[in-house]
Write a structure and sequence with these properties.
By secondary structure, the chain is of the alpha/beta class. It folds into three domains: 113 residues, D-Maltodextrin-Binding Protein, domain 2 (3-Layer(aba) Sandwich); 81 residues, D-Maltodextrin-Binding Protein, domain 2 (3-Layer(aba) Sandwich); 87 residues, Porphobilinogen deaminase, C-terminal domain (Double Stranded RNA Binding Domain).
């Protein structure tokens, strides 16, 4: 099982391992920890070194070379296009999807004083938060979850913003001061979901992992990824997408923003079987509103 070597990634891989062993008690599962290019170049913005796809490149190479049978990913880090020989047939039941506010001195984003420094390298978060409060300063913050919390504790930032899912998986919920609502901060496509990638021709492995798939999570994440894909590929830019299913109704939301606080939104509702098409229609509506004009500023 290929995994990044960050504490959170190892924790997530161990979670998948435990689920597999519960299903198949006689299975042997070894973890193959790999340092990705994105993990080793923490002093540079992701956009400058190739985007989030660098979090999975080495893991996928291990699959293609046969050094690993599966790879475990945080779905928000997985590029929209996969190698032709690989696929993502399994997504575990989604954890909490929202982003959270973390601070040692303030209880909420609204409580921060003017010109307070907030740490996040996510353009998706920065642009939406800027629309809420234009008087807040944002500074880059990369690294694993431990590193980010350490820098907050050192006083480098008044607050930081992280995904709730990682903190919950590490059992560090006590650090959370407040949750942002979906309306305040629309999540990244795939946020809170873990995916299991394998080779398409490896039918034996597929049979072993297939029972772990959560159909609702899979449907929602595929719809979210369809929004990003239709907007031009990887969500390295201020794009957000979130889908939720209630009974037989799927709601897909999409968002594109810029650094000046302009936000474009689109929503579609329909049957879950139409999830990917709904995602594409959300993207089309955003493009009609002028999304590409906003995105070009970050792609040039």
């Amino acid at each position: 099982m290929a995994t990044r070597e960050s504490p959170l990634a190892i924790k997530q891989a161990e979670l998948v391992k435990a689920m597999l062993l519960k299903l198949h008690p006689h299975l042997t599962v070894d973890l193959l920890g790999l340092t990705t290019q994105a993990d080793s170049m923490l002093d540079m913005p992701l956009l400058e070194i190739g985007g989030k796809g660098l979090f999975v490149k080495e893991l996928e190479q291990a699959l293609l070379e046969g050094r690993a049978d599966v790879a475990v990913h945080s779905m928000k880090d997985v590029p929209m296009e996969l190698a032709a020989e690989l696929h993502l047939p399994v997504m575990l039941k989604r954890e909490e999807v929202r982003d959270v506010f973390i601070s040692n001195h303030y209880h909420s984003f609204g409580e921060l004083p003017s010109n307070a420094v907030v740490g996040t390298s996510s353009l998706r978060r920065q642009t939406q938060l800027h629309a809420l409060r234009a008087d807040i300063a944002f500074q880059p913050l990369r690294g694993n979850i431990n590193t980010r919390l350490k820098r907050l504790d050192q006083g480098d930032y008044a607050a930081i913003v992280l995904a709730a899912a990682g903190l919950k998986r590490m059992d560090w919920q006590a650090r959370i001061r407040a949750y942002f609502s979906i309306e305040q901060l629309l999540p990244a496509a795939g946020q809170g979901a873990l995916g299991i990638e394998c080779r398409k021709d490896d039918t034996h492995t597929l049979e072993l992992i297939a029972p772990l798939n959560d159909e609702t999570t899979y449907t929602c994440v595929q719809a979210e990824r369809a929004v990003c894909q239709a907007l031009g590929g990887n969500c390295q830019v201020p794009v957000a997408a979130y889908a939720e299913q209630h009974h037989q109704k799927l709601t897909v939301r999409g968002l594109v923003a810029n650094e000046k606080g302009r936000i474009l939104r689109a929503t579609r509702e329909g049957h879950p079987q139409e999830g990917e098409n709904m995602g594409k229609r959300v993207a089309e509506e955003l493009l009609q509103q002028g999304a590409m004009t906003l995105l070009k500023a970050f792609l040039t």
